[in-house]
Write a sequence for this structure.
């Protein structure tokens, strides 16, 4: 999944021959599941049609403050458009438009919207090589960057004039990866490795039966997604679940038993920065696994159980700089029990959820949590979706890790 998924992108196209490439650029953004709106300067329409762009972007295309030919025309509000966007991209950016952006010459909808936008603005210049080298253009490039705009540099190559040199607009694929990398580099968990355990474990009784629990994996998967959206490289170690996740930063490791989860966690824990244990690990397993299906008998059946390894406690003992967060699922004496786990498992914080709270715990799409730190300070959160709970937990970690 791209960091551009769900992002609102405002594409401003100005009047240069490279405008024809923006059809492909819009396609790439849409394929990455971004939402795209397009503003054309009047001269951009000489190079690409609004119809092409509205068809590809699946949105109305704007090119003036209002439609002069329509007597019922409505005002295209540049402020609303500017505020709508998560990011604005001006591509191609001609020398003329860059100069207007620099000077605040808002004589068209695109520049007026640019001046209203509060989001990051990227610009990808395109022009002939002598124009690109001109002192006036250089001044625009320097000023625009100095006031916070992000330059996507022009490439060298054959230009529309037939000359060869610097001034070609960056290729659409390169523009997309430039923006993706730029966003990724600014994410707060960029370069951090997070281990997340999720789901239940199954402890085999015989080839057809197991000891398990009701964990669906939803909480752990929500945490993995939220961590990846913040730029972390995630090791998601999960027991059996129907949950799915596709994200280039999430490495999913499927396990079945507590012992397998233990091994997978220890493979990656030492090199991690943060670990969050949301899995509901079985505390006991049958002492002797039987290779054949146990036949029904009239007499009662006694199953001897033996403890599974406590994975969280085991990493608590060897942790160095990792910020370690456990979960506690309780049914009684909730706070007291959760606090004991902080000490016994050497945690930095624990996330308490109680089966006494409606909508909290196993298999629901919501959860209600209290986070307790190792000094036993607690913060209570409202009932929220598991996605929101995951964001709360990661925000808490980001705020408290440095503290
Ligand atoms: O998966 P969902 O349906 O979305 O449900 C989410 C959840 C209810 C499973 C989750 O929010 C949760 O509470 N997970 C922890 C459940 C649990 O096993 O709690 P515990 O109090 O028994 O364990 C304390 C901590 O030790 C947990 O972090 C657990 O992962 C860990 N543990 C426990 C036993 C064990 N052998 N190894 C462990 O690592």
């Amino acid at each position: 999944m791209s960091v551009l998924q769900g992002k609102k992108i405002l594409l401003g196209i100005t009047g240069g021959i490279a405008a024809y490439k923006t059809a492909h650029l819009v396609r790439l953004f849409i394929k990455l599941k971004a939402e795209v709106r397009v503003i054309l300067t009047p001269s951009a329409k000489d190079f690409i049609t609004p119809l092409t762009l509205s068809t590809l972007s699946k949105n109305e295309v704007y090119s003036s403050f209002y439609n002069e030919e329509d007597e019922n025309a409505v005002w295209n509000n540049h402020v609303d458009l500017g505020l709508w966007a998560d990011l604005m991209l001006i591509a191609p950016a001609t020398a003329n438009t860059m100069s207007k952006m620099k000077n605040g010459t808002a004589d068209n909808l695109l520049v007026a919207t640019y001046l209203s936008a509060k989001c990051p603005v990227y610009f990808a210049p395109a022009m002939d090589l002598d124009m690109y080298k001109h002192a006036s253009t250089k001044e625009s490039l320097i000023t625009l960057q100095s006031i916070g705009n992000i330059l996507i540099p022009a490439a060298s190559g054959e230009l529309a004039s037939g000359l060869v040199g610097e001034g070609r607009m960056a290729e659409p694929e390169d523009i997309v990866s430039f923006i993706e990398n730029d966003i990724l580099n600014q994410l707060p968990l960029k370069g951090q490795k997070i281990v997340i355990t999720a789901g239940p474990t199954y402890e085999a009784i015989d080839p057809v039966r197991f000891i398990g629990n009701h964990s669906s994996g939803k909480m752990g998967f929500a945490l993995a997604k939220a961590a990846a959206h913040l730029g972390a490289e995630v090791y998601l170690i999960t027991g059996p679940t129907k949950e799915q996740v596709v994200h280039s930063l999430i490495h999913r490791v499927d396990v079945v038993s507590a012992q397998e989860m233990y091994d997978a966690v220890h493979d990656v824990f030492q090199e991690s920065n943060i670990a969050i244990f949301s899995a509901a690990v079985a505390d006991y397993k049958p002492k002797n696994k039987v290779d054949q299906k146990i036949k029904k008998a009239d007499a009662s059946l006694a199953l001897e159980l033996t403890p599974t390894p406590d994975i969280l406690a085991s990493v608590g003992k060897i942790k160095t700089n990792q910020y370690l967060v456990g979960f506690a699922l309780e049914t009684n004496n909730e706070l007291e029990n959760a606090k004991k786990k902080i000490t016994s498992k050497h945690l930095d914080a624990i996330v308490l959820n109680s089966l006494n709270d409606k909508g909290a715990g196993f298999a629901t799409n919501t959860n209600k949590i209290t986070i307790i730190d190792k000094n036993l300070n607690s913060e209570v959160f409202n009932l929220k979706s598991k996605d929101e709970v995951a964001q709360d937990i990661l925000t808490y970690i980001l705020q408290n890790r440095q503290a």
